[in-house]
Amino acid sequence: MSHRKYDLGRDGIWTLVLSLALPTALAQAVNVLYAIVDRMFIGHIAGYGDIALAGVGVAAPIATFISSFATLIGMGGAPLMAMSEGHGDHEKAEKIVTTGFYLLIISSALLTPVFFFFRDPILLAFGASPVTLPYASEYLGWYLLGTPFALLAGGLNSFVINQGMSRKGMASVLTGAVLNIMLDPLFIFTFSMGVKGAAIATVLSQLASMCVSIMALRGSDATIKLRFRGFMPSQITKIIKFGLSSFIIISTDSLLLVILNAMLQRYGGPEMGDILITCSTIVQSYHILVTYPMGGMTAGCQGLVSYNYGAGYTDRVRKSISDLQILITSYTVAMTALTFIFPGYFAMLFTSDNEILTLSVKYMIIFESMIIPLSFQYVNVDMMTALGQIHISLPLSLLRKISFMIASIILPVLFAADAAFFSEPISDIISCTVGTIVVYRNLGRILQKREKEGLRI
User: Fold this and answer.
1) Which of 109, 147, 169, 324 is the most exposed place for a label (fewest CB within 10 A)?
2) CA distances from 437 to 326, 376, 440, 442 (A)
3) Are 411 and 272 in contact (CB under 8 A)?
């Protein structure tokens, strides 16, 4: 495979947007398989599949929260790396990669023991019932043993993508996802390992992805290499600052799913609580299949925007953002159509229970009804982050999360447990409206200031 590198400062913008966004979106679509393939196989375990699926659904937001630290460091360090390279400071760019590498290792060392030893009380607080807890605890316990692999695979991939090697970034994710698909049925069914087998398959797959990312950053095609030396403590605060907005998007998504599951369990009661959480697990699996590629598109183009901002090519920054919005909105229009036409086919991948199938289709359509406005939220937040405007991107991220949280708590109280599924479309339309107004009013000023005053990072 040819791993062509792109000239971020000279190649055509539309060509660059397609070349960087589409492979990264595909990589993220494949990355979704890490989450949903486990659930597909688990849901079809004879005798207890639906209950085990509910247990994994409770554990999944915790696993996602831990993985979000890869986003904090990767999507925080990668734009800084790209800006430094665009500004001509190659040595600093390489040191930022090294700093990100060691921060990922430190994060995994701090997170793993805390969540491993306290996982049962955490799971019970976050929506597990006495019936689903054994499955949730077993899955999460084994998953946590692979935390270093998960963080390094996800975090380092951002540094690969943001220097124009989007195909190698895709190869890293694809390697792990394909391996996971192969190992899941082997471990779950052939070796009769059940939920534990699904978690072990994921850990081994993340190990493979990590190795591919490291090789990409150490290889001859890498302009900015991982050299394992040059750790810069002075960059830690900046990396966290730049990655905080994206981190909040993912980590609070996990928190919101926890709240959603807890409300479904509480107001669904003993008869419907576990059923609603099983449905929620299916709906959330579809939701990340829709949203991860959007995040991939914006992540793939962050380096393009950061580089041209660092080089002072403000017209290219404007066109990059507008072309990306056209691409990502077109994608959400297509996904909306698929959601309304074929929702049942996706739900059948997880369960054969007619009640759960019917409810899952209903909730899926509700949950995804405003993903076209959501495309503007993704572009607004991630492009402001790429420009270093954290004071804009961070509040916009928080707005969507807070509106979701308020709706998911209030709606079940006022109506019924399943009214919580309306929280997503409500938060999507609010964040799109406010975010688009804010970005429209500020983007011109930000780029004019860059032209007059130079780069400050």
Assistant:
1) 109
2) 17, 11, 5, 9
3) no
What pTM, to 2 d.p., does this model score? Answer: 0.81
Could you report the per-residue pLDDT of 92-121, keeping only the tens digit for each?
999 999 999 999 999 999 999 999 999 999
Give the other-Cβ count within 10 Å of 234's Cβ: 8
Over the stretch 144-199, which tens digit does the pLDDT of each residue have? 999 999 999 999 999 998 887 878 888 898 899 889 999 999 999 999 999 999 99
- Give the DSSP letter string of 15-62: HHHHHHHHHHHHHHHHHHHHHHHHHHHHHTSTTTHHHHHHHHHHHHHH
The structure tokens listed for 280 are: 């929620």
Placement of tokens 């630290």 in the chain: 69
Looking at residue 135, its amino acid is Y
In this model, does residue 455 exceed pLDDT 80?
A: no
Instruction: Delimit the domains of the chain by residue range.
Output: 13-453
Residues 6+ apart with CB under 8 A from 261: 57, 58, 61, 126, 127, 277, 280
SS3 letters across 67-126: HHHHHHHHHHHHHHHHHHHHCCCHHHHHHHHHHHHHHHHHHHHHHHHHHHHCHHHHHHHC
- Model confidence at 245, pLDDT cuts 50, 70, 90, reads confident
E strands, 301-428, where? none
What distance in Å separates the CA atoms of residue 182 and residue 168, rounded to the nearest whole number?
A: 21
Helix (H, G, I), strand (E, B) or coil at 219: coil
User: In this structure, are residues 24 and 167 in contact, taking their beta carbons and an 8 Å threshold?
Assistant: no
Enumerate residues 6+ apart whose C-beta is below 8 A from 220: none
